[in-house]
Amino acid sequence: MAKKLFTFSRTFLQGLSFRDKKKRNDETSALLPKAGNPDAQGSPLNSKGEETDCHSKEKGQWCFSQSSHHHLDSLSRCVKYLTLVWNLAFSIVGLVILAIGIWGLSDKESLANEQITHLGSDPMLFFVLAGLAASAMSLLGCTGALIENTCLLKIFSAGIITFVVLEIVGGIILFSLRNQIKASLQNSLMVAVQRYQDDLDLQFIMDEIQTGLQCCGVESYLDWKTNLYFNCSSPGVQACGVPASCCLDPRENGTIPNSQCGFGALALEEFVAQSTIYLGGCVPQLSRWLNNHTGAIASYFVFLILIEVGSLLLATKLLAGIAFATTQDDSRGEGTFWLSSDHRQRGFYY
């Protein structure tokens, strides 16, 4: 009796094992190529020339693509690498500008807790924002071209279009409101003159403007009388003086900086003072400089627009090449295979 029970149990277990093995083979065999049987359930892979049409598949079957690699033509490949190098170069430039801005903020301790409230008026913040925007957009286009990602390239193209529109609109606004901007600039420079010793940022900006434009004050050198320390009624050593950036030669013997070269200039006659300091104000000098360099400024603006439009055209051409390559791959059926309804019922979902 025990022998018969043992024989029956072994036969039963062998039957279960055979059915499980057969079930596993059935579940996986439809995913493998079946040469010579195109009508079998679960058509074979078609990346080797076997004809498979996803648009004419039978009811209850579906197919999908595994391949994300695009077979670009030679022109599209050239555009891809040109886009990559182009954006890589501008991303480096943007990162350099960003580094300069961050260095300027840290050097002046503008990020300290007691100075963080004045961060919005710090001129170095412009370098940080400009460098961040340029590097981010360039790296976006560079990455999109490298991995042939249409989503990143479309975001990059939209960002370039936004920049171009904002620059054109900004240029139109600046030209149409030039008189109001001039008046605002006069007020800002007058504030810088009055708070020259109190704000290091304003002091730096005013010195750079006066040195670069070779001017002194807002409308004339007499504007420095509105400064509390340079006023002739002031008891300090700077009374009746102007900053060293107003001097014709701010160095003694041409080598040593002389911070006191403008002391007492406001007490001199205009004929005598002109041999020591600049008499003309910075606003008239800036107006003359803009009038003399209008062509150069317009050329730089057009050059910037052309660079951005060139980036946009490269991205658009690469997108078109990727779309064409994707269409060609789909027409050849590369990277696709059938999955029958029977396997979907068994849990083969992708």
Automatic annotation (TrEMBL):
It comes from the Eukaryota. The chain crosses the membrane at residues 84-105, 125-148, 155-177, 297-315. Residues 27-53 are annotated as: Disordered. It is a multi-pass membrane protein. GO terms for cellular component: plasma membrane. It is found in: Cell membrane. Keywords: Cell membrane, Disulfide bond, Glycoprotein, Membrane, Transmembrane, Transmembrane helix. GO terms for molecular function: enzyme binding. Signal peptide: none annotated. The keyword Transferase does not apply. Belongs to the tetraspanin (TM4SF) family. Part of TspanC8 subgroup, composed of 6 members that interact with the transmembrane metalloprotease ADAM10. This interaction is required for ADAM10 exit from the endoplasmic reticulum and for enzymatic maturation and trafficking to the cell surface as well as substrate specificity. Different TspanC8/ADAM10 complexes have distinct substrates. This is Tetraspanin-10. It comes from Anolis carolinensis (Green anole).
